[in-house]
Design a protein that fits this description.
The chain is mainly alpha-helical. It has 9 helices and no strands. The protein has one domain. The chain is globular, with a radius of gyration of 18 Å. The two termini are 34 Å apart.
Length: 215
């Protein structure tokens, strides 16, 4: 999730002409960054994880009207979506990036947990925070701003993914024991906890702003 910020911010800063459209809407970037994993909720419809919703061609098709309307402004938001499987899932596992033209699953398959996975997750979180501080968006994400209410969505997605992972264990104690058995898992868990807390703070601030507006 943190890498969505990184790549979107880099696209915003480095691609000529994009930066003139103003700052990025970070809640939208985070939401789009996890959107391919909506397939975790679509199992009852026969959609398998890391297949259809992880296709380049699906998202290119869906973004055509977005590019028609918003032009260059849409680039960082498109990057936020495709980085999820073109960078993260492609390295960690195998994804159906060429659907519907091919159902072949491709990727490096480093797996989770691995030193590559932990390095990317930790590096992504730290780099995203550094970039947000540099462009001045981190302070706004913790301010009482009604736009931050949308941070509830990535927060909910992070919670659902944690629950999805936790369902593989018979009890909380066995899950905790498993995490503590490996230093890599401990680092991953701490990173997700930090991200969860940051999203929760921003969400609360957004909800506070909405509440004060409705008074």
């Amino acid at each position: 999730m943190a890498w969505a910020d990184v790549w979107a911010l880099l696209a915003w800063a480095l691609i000529p002409g994009v930066k003139r459209y103003g700052k990025l809407f970070v809640p939208a970037i985070l939401i789009l960054g996890i959107l391919p994993d909506s397939d975790l909720l679509l199992g009852s419809f026969g959609i398998v994880h890391r297949t259809v919703t992880h296709s380049f061609f699906l998202w290119i098709l869906l973004f055509i009207p977005v590019f028609v309307v918003f032009r260059l402004k849409a680039i960082p938001y498109f990057v936020a979506v495709i980085q999820h499987f073109a960078f993260g899932d492609f390295l960690m596992g195998k994804v159906m990036v060429f659907w519907p033209f091919s159902s072949k699953l491709v990727g490096f398959g480093f797996g989770m947990p691995s030193s590559v996975d932990v390095g990317l997750e930790t590096g992504g979180l730290l780099l995203a925070l550094a970039l947000l501080i540099y462009v001045g968006d981190l302070k706004r994400l913790f301010s009482v701003d009604k736009r931050n209410a949308l941070m509830v969505l990535p927060l909910l997605a992070l919670f659902i993914s944690a629950v999805f992972f936790g369902l593989h264990w018979s009890s909380i104690s066995s899950l905790i024991a498993y995490i503590l058995s490996d230093e890599l898992l401990v680092v991953l868990a701490l990173g997700h906890i930090i991200l969860f807390v940051l999203l929760a703070i921003s969400s609360v601030q957004g909800l506070r702003a909405l509440k004060s507006t409705n008074k």
